[in-house]
């Protein structure tokens, strides 16, 4: 079965994603190889219009996904990845970088913190941004396929409570996570394996 990835951008995340679409594709093909198609779409206006912010100017990710799904119905072989420029949170967490709603195959990645320095006062260089986006894509795709957080802090499936932890983990799955993906039928490599 060929998977279809729909990438959704809103006006303020558009430039970054258009410029770095190769990184998005690299993350997807790391797991799905050539077995996918990809489209880029604009976030539906009504979703953006109806989205509400909290007092810290953050989006509640559950309500955003609900709004998105009332506008774009999930389809069985389609995985939707939404890139937002706004900061996001979930339940009692102050903020999150990304989230995955498994039943509707929806991944949301916020570029708000990913594009910033640790103190959030400045912007980081494009290469660091690209690496962070790549790690977030692997991590969320891992969740989508059923992987939980990993206790190996170098593994891309480890939970990153802050940007420093995100930068310190590797853009790879550890051996344990690779084996789980292999059991599900996905051919994925870990950092110490060459791809020949
Ligand atoms: Zn996670
Ligand atoms: Zn792992």
Brief descriptors of the model:
single chain; 196 residues; alpha/beta; Collagenase (Catalytic Domain); five-stranded mixed β-sheet; two-stranded parallel sheet; 39% helix; binds zinc ion
What this model shows, in words?
The chain is an alpha/beta fold and 196 residues long. The protein has one domain (3-149): 3-Layer(aba) Sandwich (Collagenase (Catalytic Domain)), CATH 3.40.390. The protein is built from 8 helices and 7 strands; from the N terminus they run βααβαβαββββαααα. The strands form 2 sheets. It has a 5-stranded mixed sheet with strand order 2-1-4-7-6. Strand 6 (98-101) and strand 7 (106-110) form a beta hairpin. The two termini are 25 Å apart. The mean pLDDT is 95. The structure holds zinc ion (ZN) (2 copies).
CATH homology superfamily name: Collagenase (Catalytic Domain)
Tell the overall outline: globular
Tell me the domain tally: 1
C-alpha Rg (nearest Å): 16 Å
Helical content (DSSP H or I, runs of 4+): 25-40%
Cα distance, first to last residue? Answer: 25 Å
Helix/strand/pairing category: alpha/beta
The main β sheet shows up as: 5 strands, mixed
> What fold name stands as the CATH topology?
Collagenase (Catalytic Domain)
Into which percentage range does the β-strand content fall?
Answer: 15-25%
* Quaternary class: single chain
CATH class assignment: Alpha Beta
The total of beta strands comes to: 7
Report the total helices: 8
CATH architecture tag: 3-Layer(aba) Sandwich
Widest sheet: strand ordering: 2-1-4-7-6
Whole-number mean pLDDT: 95
Stretches with pLDDT under 50, minimum 5 residues: none
